[in-house]
Amino acid sequence: MSQKNTSEQAPLFYAGVDGGGTKCRAELYDPSGNLLGAGVAGSANIARNGEVARQSILASVSAALQHANLPPEALQQTLVCGGFAGANLPSASNALKRWQHPFHSFYFTSDLHSALYGAHDGANGAVLVIGTGSCAAALKDGELTQYGGHGFLLGDKGSGAWLGKQAVIHTLEAIDDIQQKGALATAVCNHYQAHSATDLVDKLNQANPGVFGELCPIVLELANQQDPIAQALVQQGSSYLSAIARKAIAQSGGQLVLAGGVANALQHQLEADIQASLTASTHGPEWGAILLYQHGAFTEGAKL
């Protein structure tokens, strides 16, 4: 998807952007593919908060230009290709199409698409993303099929935010004396400095997924220490992740690449057949977005 400015001059720089629910990372390249700089900003989930996402995209590309010792004016000479969480939803995608961006031109797709394309260099294969959210996808003969990834409210099982949310639900039930209050509930209360159900709900009732994701390292650490509640949550999430990964592997006929900030921590929890299908990523999602542009894989119908 793209939105072009009126300039016919070829871009001098290319920025590949990976925008997830927690952070947005941009890599800046010259036309020969040499990495010039990188920049990181906040959340770029375009479905959850389009305005915040647009600010993060701009901030990450600007930071990459600064890292490359280039002036802010270079934004107008930079072609930006990005993969963003939420871009698979028509309402979010249509809103981003209307963005009056400051770049030379702008192409975008889902973060899954760019991650998958980069991971397998455009060849058939699968990816399992475990970060703030979760999903799996298959690339088969250029066609992407997604499994899971339905967002924090309705899905993202096994993700960092999901583990945190389940820990909070357990804690509330422990405070209400429905479940036994153990190490996990105590850790949740201490983390948020909230020791009653009312205080905990008050702090988290309007919280975004990243706030729940703060609990993920705590849940994983307690699981490693054999805490039964934490172990059960990790097992439940990992079983789901293995199931959607299995679907993606079968659909693609290829191997599986793990992506996302929680992937390394949960890799050993995945089922044996999934671990046996793992391979290393060829490229990161930032370069994957640029490859999509270079290979003409942004569909004509998605362009403005």
From TrEMBL:
<dbReference type="InterPro" id="IPR052519">
    <property type="entry name" value="Euk-type_GlcNAc_Kinase"/>
</dbReference>
<dbReference type="Pfam" id="PF01869">
    <property type="entry name" value="BcrAD_BadFG"/>
</dbReference>
<dbReference type="InterPro" id="IPR002731">
    <property type="entry name" value="ATPase_BadF"/>
</dbReference>
<protein>
    <recommendedName>
        <fullName>ATPase BadF/BadG/BcrA/BcrD type domain-containing protein</fullName>
    </recommendedName>
</protein>
<dbReference type="InterPro" id="IPR043129">
    <property type="entry name" value="ATPase_NBD"/>
</dbReference>
<feature type="domain" description="ATPase BadF/BadG/BcrA/BcrD type">
    <location>
        <begin position="16"/>
        <end position="291"/>
    </location>
</feature>
